[in-house]
Structures are given as structure tokens and as C-alpha cells.
Automatic annotation (TrEMBL):
SUPFAM superfamilies: p53-like transcription factors (SSF49417), SH2 domain (SSF55550), STAT (SSF47655), Transcription factor STAT-4 N-domain (SSF48092)
Keywords per UniProt: Activator, Coiled coil, Cytoplasm, DNA-binding, Nucleus, Phosphoprotein, SH2 domain, Transcription, Transcription regulation
Molecular function per GO: DNA binding; DNA-binding transcription factor activity
Name of protein: Signal transducer and activator of transcription
InterPro entries: p53-like_TF_DNA-bd_sf (IPR008967), SH2 (IPR000980), SH2_dom_sf (IPR036860), STAT (IPR001217), STAT5_CC (IPR046994), STAT_N_sf (IPR036535), STAT_TF_alpha (IPR013800), STAT_TF_CC (IPR015988)
Organism whose genome encodes this protein: Nothobranchius rachovii
Stretches of the chain forming a coiled coil according to its record: 134-168
Compartment(s) of residence: Cytoplasm; Nucleus
Length: 672
């Protein structure tokens, strides 16, 4: 205890260093109230590198917890009540943290005691001449110490946040007593409801009970969000100690509280009749008292009614999930819960249920049909809350994407920034700008993206489906940038040679991918511009693959940034068709972009062209300039300079029709 008494006399930086030793991994209150016991234990007798010493460490952990519990039990008075709860909580916290790794507790306490003793020695020696000499450190040492001090302050900020979380958890424990009160009130209301069914007075309304439950739900949910923010703070600045285990414990605790609250407030507002007859209609109403505050109504749950035996009902009340089948069949037994904005109630009204059949057990002796009891069980699953932090959503989206596409290549940080820009209608390229942002269910899959008729999730799901079905090998090869908007594509391509292209997912169409490339402007000599092909979809790739379509377009030369396209895509090209048989060749569909296809030049000229190298059976107008064709009278470009795929396919069908004609003598075949 002498060490702790001297440690409390420390001042200035030494005091700050001493305080920073404590936190959730070992609260300073435990050090204070168990100082004598802590300093009397033989911590140095345990070899931390010897796993066989774990048994000794476990005994010390058990003794520490027992000392805390005893100290808590002896607290009396108004102030002692909170301290009793706090010390009891610390006992549970330390057991949960170190029960599987007791040697870590020993390591932690040894470090604390050693550091305290060192700080006391340094403070004692600072007044001596030697201490004065030690104060004249070099500038380099001062800089190092300053860096450590800055790091310590950052760590202390995080520690303070975690202490607030600790206080919140204590508040949760107290709030649990409030849930006991709510349970008592609900049980009394249910009892009055039973009596009312047998001729007693009305059970009364649920509005007051609902207001209490909603207040509790608001408080719990707010604290849950604080825990989530602390988790991401820890990820940005990892600090030593079992912080991760503590946050997991806090998350588990708050989740259990929310689960208990939702379960206990899901009640039958209007009971079905006590005696049911087959082929007779009956009604019932169920209600969730916290549905509005926890935003359950954002994703309206479905409630199912089934009939079970008395034995099954008793087993369920004991949390023995032994029910594997119903004891009968109820018609119209599914109902979606509806939210009433004016009253703030979330309820499901079963208006036309009917008992079609009942399965009875074997009756013995003089047992009557009316002696056999059954219960109608109402079941549902609820999604609570309406917000999630963007980094957490990113983790879920990335995991979903890799699972759906069955690829080890997930979403990069740049991809996630693109998604954040789309989700929040933002232009920021800084990932840190989105770390504290939250997304609601409405933003995710209810409200359409600005200027579109689809939601964020519908767009992303379309990307996953397209990639999974048609683009998986190209995604795995890194050939698809994908998550790039039109302006970004233009900025990237304008610095590259003509013929450079990239693949990006369409902003305007669900499940679409487009090709953007840089080339000369045919209407203005010396000017370059970026072109965007109308998006391909699953329907297009069922006709011709992406690799073959890229092969068809000879004006596409380099995949961004500088990879020859054949180097990337040739292994996926469809093999050439066989030679003519009996004077016929098999037709083939090829993609053509008219404004970027020119006639075959004179080979002697050496002038490069964008025309397909295969000879055409139809006559071609040779142009000596080998320039780009002027726009067709029926142009295939839309107002934004994008190509219309349907018109492009019309050209392809025309080519196919030409190929179906008999082969001319120049092919060396015979016409039948």
C-alpha cells in the first residue's frame, strides 16, 4: 500500500504517466480499493514465458475477483450503492477479459507496479544534484520525449472515450432494472387481459406502456451508436490492452438488451377467442411497442400464426425449442405489420383466420375433447435500427461482393470511395470524409439515386449479377476498373494515346458495363475526345462475349493504362470458324461501331485503319483518305455522344444477312 500512497503524491507529467497506466484493461478504481492486496502478492514469482505458470496466474485472478466482490458487498449508504455496482461490474469485466489468458493479467499488473515504482524513484531523485544533471537532456532527447507525449495524449483521448463507454455500460445495468419494471407492468397488463376474457374489467390501453418502452429504446439505441463509433476510433488508433475484448463485451451486452426489449414488447393486443371451431373465421391483433422508435417499420416484418400443443407451448416458455411441426392448419395465417403514422403503432391485424384442421393426441379413458388445450403462436423476425456507419457497410458490401462473384479480388479503397460518392451524392475523394457518415435503410434500398429510377442497392446488386454471370474472369484479371464515373474516365484517358480504353460500370443502367476510349474528334481536326459506348447488359453478353466484342472493335488498342488489348483478352476470344463446306461459310455476328470503321486500305500504303482485317464479301467503298466516316443519316449516337446498342446490333444483323449470301468465286468455293 506504501507504493500507492506515494504514487498519489506524484505531480505534473509523472502523475499523467501514472494515470495513463489504467483503463478498461485494469481500472484505476481496482488499484485504489485493492492497493494493499495488490502490493502484497508475489507477482514476480510467476514466469510469464512458462505456460505451466498459467495455473498460478488463474488462482491470482480468482483471488482478485473474490476480493473485488467482497469489497463490493461491504459498500453501504447512498454513495455505496453506485460503488457496489461499479466494483461488481469490474469483477465481471476482469473475469471476462482475463479468464482465458490469466498470464496477461499478471503481465499487466507487473507493468503497472514497476512503472509506479520507477516514477516514484525519479520524482524522489529529481531534487538531488544528480537529478539536476538529468534535467539537461539533449535537444534530440527532448524531441523524442515530445513525440512520446503527443502519442500519449492521443492514446489518452481514446482512453477517455472508453471510460465514457464504461459509464454507459453501468447505466445499462441500471436500465436493466427499468426493464424489470416494464416486464412487471406488461405481465400485469397481460393478466388483466386474461381476466377480461373471462368477464373481468377491460385491461386498458397500451399507450402509456408504449411511451415507456420507446423512451428506453431511444436511450439504448443511442448508446449502441456510441459503442459503434468507439470501435472505429480504435481501428484508426490501436492502443495496447484488451480493448477489443471490452468492446466486444459492450456490443454483446447492448445487443442482448435490445433483443430482450424487442421480445418482451411483442404482444398480442387482441386475443383470439378461447374456443375455436374448424371452418369458422376468427381475428387477432399483435403489436410491437418499440417498432416505431427502432424503425422496424422501415422493413415491415411479416407475422405468422401457427397452432401448437400445450406441451410445445410450455417447452417454448422454458426456452426449449422442441417444436418441429404444428398441431393443425390455420388459413390466412400470414400478415404484414403496418405502421400507423398518427398513432405511432406498428401492428398486424389478422381479420380472416380460419382453423382448417386440428391434430389431436390420443385420448385416454374419459378425457373429453375440450380438455385438450392448444396455443396460437405468433412468430416474426425484426430488423431493428435504421442507420449503419459507412465503414461497416463497406465491410458487408465487400464480403457480399466477393462471395457473389466468387473472387478473391474484393473492392479496393478507390472502389469504396466511388460507392460512397454515389451513395451520398458527394464529390470528395478522401476516404476519411466518409468514416463517420451513416446510411439509412431508405438511402440504401428505398430512395432512388438522384436523377435515377433505381436505388443504391439495386444498382450495386446489378453490378454483382453482371460480374458473376459474364465478367468474372476479366474482374479477376484486373481488366475491369468498373467503379469509375464518366468524368473520371475522361480525365484518366485524355492523358493516354489514342485507342486507349477502359471498362466501367454504367451509372445510368442497372447491370450495365460500358467501354470508354480516347480518339480523334471526327468533326474537328486536331482535337481529341473520350467516347462512351452504350452499356452492355446480360442480354448482350448472351449473344456475344465481352472479349469478342472488344476484339471486333479494332480502334481499341490499349487497355488502360498501357496494356495491349490482345495481351489481356486474347485467351478469351472465340476460336475462328471453320472453312467453307460445299461452297458455304457459317455466318458470324460481329460488332461494328460505324463511325470508327473504315474501308480496307491499299496494303502498299501502310496506312493503319480501324477496319476489321477479314475480307468482306460485300463491296466496300475504298476511301483514299482512310478517315473516319461521316455520321450516318440515321445516327447511332445519342445526345451525350454515347452509342445506341440497339442500332449497333442492327448493323451487326445486316452484316449477318450479307454473310448468308452465296460465296463469290473469289473465295474459291462453288455455288450450289
Amino acid at each position: 500500500m506504501a507504493v500507492w500512497i506515494q504514487a498519489q503524491q506524484l505531480q505534473g507529467d509523472a502523475l499523467h504517466q501514472m494515470q495513463s497506466l489504467y483503463g478498461q484493461h485494469f481500472p484505476i478504481e481496482v488499484r485504489h480499493y485493492l492497493s494493499q492486496w495488490l502490493e502484497s502478492q508475489l507477482w514476480d514469482a510467476i514466469d510469464l514465458e512458462n505456460p505451466q505458470e498459467e495455473f498460478k496466474a488463474k488462482r491470482l485472478l480468482d483471488s482478485l475477483i473474490l476480493e473485488l466482490q467482497n469489497k463490493a458487498e461491504h459498500q453501504v449508504g447512498e454513495d455505496g450503492f453506485l460503488l457496489k455496482i461499479k466494483l461488481g461490474h469490474y469483477a465481471n469485466q476482469l473475469k471476462s477479459t482475463y479468464d482465458r489468458c490469466p498470464l496477461e493479467l499478471v503481465r499487466c499488473i507487473k507493468h503497472i507496479l514497476y512503472t509506479e515504482q520507477r516514477l516514484i524513484r525519479e520524482a524522489t531523485n529529481s531534487s538531488s544534484p544528480v537529478g539536476g544533471m538529468m534535467d539537461s537532456m539533449s535537444q534530440k532527447y527532448q524531441q523524442i520525449n515530445q513525440a512520446f507525449e503527443e502519442l500519449r495524449l492521443l492514446t489518452q483521448d481514446t482512453e477517455n472515450d472508453l471510460r465514457k463507454l464504461q459509464h454507459n455500460q453501468e447505466y445499462f445495468i441500471i436500465q436493466k432494472q427499468q426493464t424489470v419494471i416494464l416486464d412487471d407492468e406488461l405481465i400485469q397488463w397481460k393478466r388483466r387481459q386474461q381476466l377480461a376474457g373471462n368477464g373481468g374489467p377491460p385491461e386498458g390501453g397500451l399507450d402509456i406502456l408504449q411511451s415507456w418502452c420507446e423512451k428506453l429504446a431511444e436511450t439504448i439505441w443511442q448508446n449502441r451508436q456510441q459503442i459503434r463509433r468507439a470501435e472505429h476510433l480504435r481501428q484508426q488508433l490501436p492502443i495496447p490492452g484488451p480493448i477489443e475484448e471490452l468492446l466486444n463485451e459492450l456490443n454483446s451486452t447492448i445487443t442482448d438488451i435490445i433483443s430482450a426489449l424487442v421480445t418482451s414488447t411483442f404482444i398480442i393486443e387482441k386475443q383470439p377467442p378461447q374456443v375455436l371451431k374448424t371452418q369458422t373465421k376468427f381475428a387477432a391483433t399483435v403489436r410491437l411497442l418499440v417498432g416505431g422508435k427502432l424503425n422496424v417499420h422501415m422493413n415491415p416484418p411479416q407475422v405468422k400464426a401457427t397452432i401448437i400443443s400445450e406441451q410445445q407451448a410450455k417447452a417454448l416458455l422454458k426456452n426449449e425449442n422442441t417444436r418441429n411441426e404444428s398441431s393443425g392448419e390455420i388459413l390466412n395465417n400470414n400478415c404484414v405489420m403496418e405502421y400507423h403514422q398518427t398513432t405511432g403503432t406498428l401492428s398486424a391485424h389478422f381479420r380472416n383466420m380460419s382453423l382448417k384442421r386440428i391434430k389431436r393426441s390420443d385420448r385416454r379413458g374419459a378425457e373429453s375433447v375440450t380438455e385438450e388445450k392448444f396455443t396460437i403462436l405468433f412468430e416474426s423476425q425484426f430488423s431493428v435500427g435504421n442507420k449503419v456507419l459507412w465503414p461497416q457497410l463497406c465491410e458487408a458490401i465487400n464480403m457480399k461482393y466477393k462471395a457473389e462473384v466468387q473472387s478473391n479480388r474484393g473492392l479496393s479503397e478507390e472502389n469504396l470511395v466511388f460507392l460512397a460518392q454515389k451513395a451520398f451524392s458527394s464529390t470528395s475523394n478522401n476516404p476519411d470524409d466518409y468514416r463517420s457518415m451513416t446510411m439509412t435503410w431508405s438511402q440504401f434500398n428505398r430512395e432512388s439515386l438522384p436523377g435515377r429510377n433505381f436505388t443504391f442497392w439495386q444498382w450495386f446488386d446489378g453490378v454483382m449479377e453482371l460480374t458473376k454471370k459474364h465478367l468474372k474472369p476479366h474482374w479477376n484479371d484486373g481488366a475491369i476498373l468498373g467503379f469509375v464515373n464518366k468524368q473520371q474516365a475522361q480525365d484518366m484517358l485524355m492523358s493516354k494515346p489514342n485507342g486507349t480504353f477502359l471498362l466501367r460500370f454504367s451509372d445510368s443502367e442497372i447491370g450495365g458495363i460500358t467501354i470508354a476510349w480516347v480518339a480523334e474528334n471526327p468533326n474537328k481536326a486536331g482535337e481529341r475526345m473520350v467516347w462512351n459506348l452504350m452499356p452492355y447488359t446480360t442480354k448482350d453478353f448472351s449473344i456475344r462475349s465481352l472479349a469478342d466484342r472488344i476484339s471486333d472493335l479494332n480502334h481499341l488498342l490499349f487497355l488502360y493504362p498501357d496494356r495491349a488489348k490482345d495481351e489481356v483478352f486474347s485467351k478469351y476470344y472465340t476460336p475462328p470458324l471453320s472453312k467453307a463446306v460445299d461452297g458455304y461459310v457459317k455466318p458470324q455476328i460481329k460488332q461494328v461501331v460505324p463511325d470508327f470503321a473504315t474501308a480496307n486500305p491499299d496494303p502498299a500504303s501502310g496506312t493503319p485503319t480501324y477496319m476489321d482485317h477479314g475480307a468482306s464479301p460485300a463491296p466496300v467503298n475504298h476511301s483514299h483518305s482512310y478517315g473516319i466516316y461521316q455520321p450516318m443519316s440515321d445516327p447511332v449516337l445519342d445526345g451525350d455522344g454515347d452509342f445506341d446498342l440497339d442500332d449497333t446490333m442492327d448493323v451487326a444483323r445486316h452484316v449477318e444477312e450479307l454473310l448468308r449470301r452465296p460465296v463469290e468465286s473469289q473465295w474459291g468455293g462453288q455455288q450450289s
